[in-house]
Amino acid sequence: MSVDIRTEADIQAINLLRIERTAQRILEITGNSSKELSILITDDKGIHTINLSWFDRDRPTNVISFQMDEPDIMGDIAVSWQRAKREAEEGITSIDNRLTELLIHGMVHLMGYDHELGKQDALLMRQKEEHIKKELFRRNIMADLCVNVDHVATIREARGGVEPDPVVAAGVVELAGADGVVVHLREDRRHIQDRDVRLIREIVQTRLTLEMAATPEMLKIATEIGPDIVTLVPERRQEITTEGGLDVAGLIKSTSEAVATLHDAGIPVSLFVDPEPEQIEASAKAGADCIEIHTGRYAEAKGELQDQEYEQIVDMAQLASGLGLRVHAGHGLNYQNVSRLASLSEIVEFSIGHAIISRSVFAGLEQAVREMNRLIKGF
Ligand code: PXP
After folding, report:
1. pTM for this prediction
2. What topology is assigned to 2-138 in CATH?
3. What is the best residue among 148, 181, 186 to mutate for testing ligand 1's pocket, by most ligand atoms within 8 Å of CB?
4. pLDDT tens digits for 19-62?
5. What is the DSSP letter of 139?
6. CB of 154 shorter than 6 A to ligand 1
7. Strand, helix or coil at 82?
C-alpha cells in the first residue's frame, strides 16, 4: 500500500500526516490495500485549472478523481484545501473532517460509483460513503503516544529521595496529551518502585502499560495491580536498558503460559520483539494481542542502514497486522527519527521515554532557574 501526497499550496493549516494515514485506512477498509493512491492538495486556483483542462468546466470545485486503467493503481485525487476550509466552516466541522469526507468521496468515485448517473446511483454512492465513514470512526487514524516515565524515577533514585516523583510525571504527561503512561517495573527495582506502579494505576485516566519480565513475581504483581496492558520484555541485570527483543520463538512454552496467566486476569498482552518474522509468527502462536516492535536497531543505524531497518519494520508491521496482532513500536525513538515510522498505518502506538524526559530537562530548565532566582533575589 502506498499513498503519495503532493501539495501545490502553502498549507500550514493542514495535517498532511493525518491525510496520509486516513487515505491508508480508506484503502484498507475498501479492500484496496495493495494499490497506489496519489493525492494532490491544491488551492481553488489549482483545482479550477484542473477542472477546466480535463473536464471543460470553468469553475473551481472541492474534489476531482482520476481513475487509472492499471490493476495496481487506485488513481489520483485532487482536493482544494481552500474549498474544504470554507465547507468546514459552513458545515461547522473541522477542516480535517471535511478533508476526510472529500477523500472518501474521491475514493468512492475511483471505485466506480457515480452520483451523477441518477437517483439510484447517488443513493448507492452515499451508502458506500457512510459505510467507510463509520469504519473510519471505529479505527484510530493517528497512532497513540504512550510516555514512559521510568527516567523520572531514575533521577529520583540517583539521590534516593522522593523527587522527582514519576507519579506526578504520569499526571503531567496525561495533561500534555499523552494517550497512555508506561512504566517498567524491573526485578532489581533500579528506577520504578512497587509504590509508583500502585499509585500511577490509581491516578491514570488514560491507560497504563506495565512493562515487565515474565517471572512469577511480576505476574503476581500484574494480576494484583491490573494494568490496562502488560508488555513482556526480556531482562538482564547487567544491561543499561532493555537491549534486545524477547525470544518468543525460543521460549514459546513459557511465553504462552505467561500470556494465558495474564489473559485469565483480564489483561491484554503485548510482546516486545525484534522485527524478525520468526518472532512475530511465534508471538501470534503464543496468543499475544499485540507486538511492540523493538526499534533500537532502526534508531541506532545511519544512512542506508537505517533505510534497510526502516524497510524491515514496514514488512514486519504488515506481517503482524496480517496475523491479527496490533502493532506498537518503541525504543530509542526521538525527535529526529519518529516521523518516518509515524506515517505507517499499521503502527497504532508508540512507546517513548528517554527522548521525552531528556528534552524536558532543557524545555523546563529555563523556567526552573527563573523560579529559583525569584526566591533568592525576588525577581
Ligand atoms: N518500549 C520498551 C519495551 C522499553 O523497554 C523501552 C525502554 O524502557 C521503551 C519502549 C522506551 O524506550 P526509550 O526510553 O528509548 O524511548
Report:
1. 0.88
2. Collagenase (Catalytic Domain) (3.40.390)
3. 148
4. 999 999 999 999 998 899 999 999 999 999 999 999 999 999 99
5. S
6. no
7. helix
